[in-house]
Design brief:
Helices cover 42% and strands 11% of the residues. The chain is of the alpha+beta class and 387 residues long. The chain has 2 domains: 119 residues, Rossmann fold (3-Layer(aba) Sandwich), CATH 3.40.50; 182 residues, Rossmann fold (3-Layer(aba) Sandwich), CATH 3.40.50. Strands 5, 6, 7, 8 and 9 form a 5-stranded antiparallel beta sheet that branches. The protein has a two-stranded antiparallel sheet with strand order 1-2. The radius of gyration is 28 Å and the shape is globular.
């Protein structure tokens, strides 16, 4: 529906896209949604009350905007009477009930408040009426409740269980772009690599959740001028650029390439006004460092550039994914990433062992020299050297 009329003959191939852009809808015994006991090790309780406490002022502000709530919202199912013991009811009186659903692990104050937080934010960005005595900045600020909920449900466990296929597909596509040759994939359920390996641009149209999966698996962080920390706001993009080393533009060896990552996001005002983006009216674009990969590299002009070697990136991905949760179609390639990770670790250990042996040899050598000098002194001159 978003394609120009000239592209009416283009038919999308959605085979395997459900596993590629997984949103927790297909939990299995091996790759389940985060359990209540695992969540308790994240939020410090069997409920999300500790997070509610952190966002109490924002939740109160949302509550006051809608004059929440009807008494039925606070009725406890077991007793069928108001849990607060009186006829009042607000967002803080909503009883916590574990549901186990990916999008809504608990039905509670947090889940209700985050829904309203997102609703007000999205309506404001769609140029709808902003609540009285509130501004667009207020709506963005109150959006922090929804952002906190998104960060919670895309925790490390869910990210690995439901995002590993996407990350493996991403790195295998990068390798195809570098080598200009097809990467072998398996038959079976899951996405294939259907694009031309010589493609210079690959676009994934996923969801905010999928973007946060990548963030958590790769341990990324980003800050922008207009949004909350690590917020995947509407229309935002996580961009990975692949660059060849100087003089290696025609190379097809993965050793000659490095990555740079960026997060891009239009401002709330740009989105609300549906502004055309251009170099003169540009969105935020901030560099994103990749832990265990990004390094400072000194360039010939004296400047410093952040680079992540592609070979190192493959190793990072191999350590970040949950192997058994990768789709059958990409299992073989995912296994090769584990081998890459093991090989990298092996050489690191070997390097350390060699360094330690070299240090030990140096200590013995210096000790031998010192003893030889002592033999040459007057004190030891009366003794014959043992040869």
């Amino acid at each position: 529906g978003f394609l120009p009329s000239s592209c009416s003959d283009v038919k999308p191939n959605t085979n395997g896209s459900q596993l590629l852009f997984e949103q927790g809808q297909d939990p299995t015994a091996i790759c389940p949604a985060t359990s209540q006991t695992v969540y308790s090790g994240i939020v410090g309780n069997l409920t999300a009350d500790n997070i509610v406490r952190l966002y109490a002022s924002e939740i109160q502000e949302i509550n006051d905007m809608i004059d929440c709530c009807q008494p039925v919202v606070c009725v406890a199912e077991t007793s069928r009477k108001l849990s607060s013991g009186n006829e009042s009811c607000d967002l803080f009186d909503v009883q916590s009930k574990w549901s186990g659903k990916f999008y809504e692990p608990w039905v509670d104050s947090f889940s209700e408040a985050q829904y309203l937080s997102e609703w007000f934010l999205m309506s404001s960005l769609n140029n709808m009426t902003i609540p009285p005595n509130k501004t667009l900045d207020d709506m963005v600020r109150l959006g922090s409740v929804h952002n906190a909920h998104m960060q919670l449900i895309t925790n490390q466990f869910n990210a690995e269980n439901f995002g590993s296929t996407l990350l493996v597909h991403l790195v295998s596509s990068m390798e195809e772009g570098i080598t200009k040759s097809k990467v072998s994939v398996d038959s079976g359920d899951g996405p294939q690599l259907l694009h031309d390996p010589t493609s210079q641009f690959l676009y994934y149209a996923g969801h905010d959740i999928n973007l946060l999966y990548l963030k958590n698996m790769l341990r990324l962080e980003w800050e922008t001028t207009n949004w909350m920390s690590n917020q995947p706001n509407p229309g935002s993009m996580l961009v990975f650029e692949i660059h060849a080393d100087a003089g290696k533009a025609e190379s097809t060896s993965i050793d000659d390439f490095y990555l740079q990552a960026y997060f891009m996001a239009a401002s709330p005002v740009q989105i609300r006004n549906a502004e055309s983006l251009s170099p003169l009216n540009a969105p935020d674009r901030v560099a994103v460092s990749i832990p265990h990969c990004s390094k400072d590299v000194s360039l010939s002009d004296g400047s410093t550039q952040l680079q992540c070697r592609f070979t190192a990136f493959k190793s990072v991905v191999g350590k970040s994914i949950e192997q058994v949760c990768v789709s059958p179609s990409l299992q073989s390639y995912a296994s090769s990433l584990l081998n890459e990770s093991w090989t990298s670790s092996f050489w690191s250990i070997e390097t350390i062992v060699i360094a330690l042996l070299a240090m030990a040899l140096a200590v013995v050598t210096f000790r031998y020299i010192a003893l030889s000098r002592n033999h040459a002194s007057v004190e030891y001159g009366k003794y014959s050297a043992i040869v």
